[in-house]
Amino acid sequence: MKKFVFAAIVSALVLTGCSSNNVRTAGVERKVTWEYAGSLPAQKGFEHNIGTAGVLSGVLEGKYVVVGGGANFPYDSVLNGGAKKLYSDIYLLEEKDNKLEVVEHINLDNEIGYGASVTVENGVYYIGGSANADADNDILFLSMKDGKLNVEKVGDLPFTLQNGAAVEHNGKLYVMSGKQGGKATSKMYSYDLATKEVVELAPVPGQATRTQAVSQVLNGNLYVFSGGDAIAYTDGYKYDFDKNEWTEVASVELNGKGISLLGANSVKLNDKEMLVIGGFNKEVYDNAVANLGSLKGEALANFRAGYFGADPAEFNWNREVLVYNAEANTWKSLGQIPFDAPCGEGLAVIGNKIFSINGEVKPGVRTPRMYTGTLLAK
């Protein structure tokens, strides 16, 4: 595989059929089948939707998928200096016969992308991630009201947030890592949804800076995996809410080989399991960051041409459908997805249906396609 340089300034450049597989997880053999679920209609002012990455995504009322915002390069390629654009379009989708149909299409007051999405019982929180500097610390809440999609601002963080992670636990949002106030960090804060109080907590350990990690609440604890900054990480940690303490857990690996989840997305399957799709390749990413600063002139131009002109397969992004079991502290694979590995995609789960929506399939290129995975147990 070519040693392409993965741009260190990821936020500026990349974020700047059917198949079935079987796996035995927690003693239960599972099968996942994938089907093409359609494509999203064009955003306001555009004729076609070329796909977005860094999207808002979640589930409303246990039956609707909500997805929107995100970014792409609609005017010209990254190689040619094309400008990145964020969007205000939000889509309410409903699954019918494994297809996702648009129920409602609205536009927010601001264009959004690269914020943190948190699905709770009565709605979806969207934190930070706005093209408007004044709204880049907003906490939005999406819900259904009188049969229509409703969006309201419910709070503010004391800092802007991009490419961070967040969860909800006992009436508080826990916001961690990413770029806070424009700087990469591993800091974590709680935000009390009732009192609006913000408290700084013990930071995510392992690295001083961590962006684009995946996180979920499992077995009453917060779990955070991977992410990256100057290099891609494969480590994992568990946070005790009562003790404000972190402990190390199993790193992300299969058959002894570490897997980067930088740029991936995750969903909670049940109280003890989370599922992850995507992730930049660690070797390609690390090699890129190590070389980016030393490349100049013609060497840099040649690299850019080869890098942005490569096929998605050459970047070797993670195609394993990974499941982490908190009770067993183990990673398993449900096999590989039968489509290009997406990063920054929308990911949602309703019952035994998993929905992968858009995302980046190689640096600077998105997909408009959506897929439905049906998770079955034998």
Identify low-pLDDT runs: 1-25
Biggest β-sheet: count, sense, barrel?
5 strands, antiparallel
Percent helix range: under 10%
Indicate the CATH topology: Neuraminidase
Mean pLDDT over the residues: 91
Molecular shape: globular
**Biggest sheet strand line-up:** 1-2-33-30-29
Number of helices: 3
CATH superfamily: Kelch-type beta propeller
Which range does the strand content fall in?
over 45%
Helix/strand/pairing category: mainly beta
The Rg value, from CA coordinates, equals: 19 Å
Q: For this structure, what is the CATH class?
A: Mainly Beta
Q: How many domains make up the coordinates?
A: 1
Give an overview of the whole structure.
The protein has one domain: Kelch-type beta propeller (Neuraminidase), CATH 2.120.10. The protein has three helices and 33 strands. The protein is mainly β and 378 residues long. The relative contact order is 0.19. 7% of the residues lie in helices and 48% in strands. Strand 8 and strand 9 form a beta hairpin. The chain starts with 9 loop residues before the first helix and ends with a strand. The longest helix is centred in the C-terminal third of the chain and has 12 residues, at 297-308. A five-stranded antiparallel beta sheet has the order 1-2-33-30-29, with no helix packed on it. Strands 3, 4, 5, 6 and 7 form a five-stranded antiparallel beta sheet that branches. It has helices at residues 10-13, 282-292, 297-308; strands at residues 20-25, 28-39, 56-60, 64-68, 71-72, 85-96, 99-112, 116-120, 123-127, 138-145, 148-156, 161-162, 165-169, 172-176, 179-180, 183-184, 188-192, 198-201, 214-218, 221-225, 236-240, 245-249, 253-254, 257-258, 265-270, 273-277, 320-325, 330-336, 346-350, 353-357, 360-362, 365-366, 369-377.
